[in-house]
Amino acid sequence: AHVGARWGLKLLPNVVMSGLVAYSVSFAVSCVVLGLRRGRGTPVRARPAVLWFAASGIANAAAIFALNSALMLGELVYVSPLVGTYPLFTLLGSVLFYRRERITARTLLAVAIVVPSVMVITLTH
After folding, report:
1. How far apart are CA 102 and CA 95, in angstroms?
2. Could you give the dihedral angle defined by the CA atoms of residues 88, 89, 92 and 93, in that order, rounded to the nearest 10 degrees?
3. How far apart are CA 86 and CA 9, in angstroms?
4. Ramachandran quadrant class, 87 (left: phi over 0; alpha: psi -120 to 50; beta: rest)
5. pLDDT band with cut points at 50, 70 and 90 for residue 114
6. Is 98 helix (H, G, I), strand (E, B) or coil?
7. C-alpha angle 1/22/26, rounded to 5°?
8. Tell me, what DSSP letter sits at residue 39?
């Protein structure tokens, strides 16, 4: 995906426009899927849920713009492995904020493999 995004940014070297194109396509696909699901599911109308949904959309948009900026300005070999560490931060956030995530030996093994691998890739290029 990052290689494709990098290629697209070479064709359209504007992070705002590339994000706008990506979100427009995503919106169109969502509308088609919603049209196909007619009559199934109940729309959420609770105000807190809608606000959280909007906040997560804004955070996601900021993350995509940051990623596209990094891909446009930096080298793919550095950006992609660093972005690949996001599950570690998601896990950390889940442990700190929700306090429901359990750290298992398997999780620690994954962290022990991913973190040094990213360090090696980043430091050797």
Report:
1. 7
2. -150
3. 22
4. alpha
5. confident
6. helix
7. 100
8. T
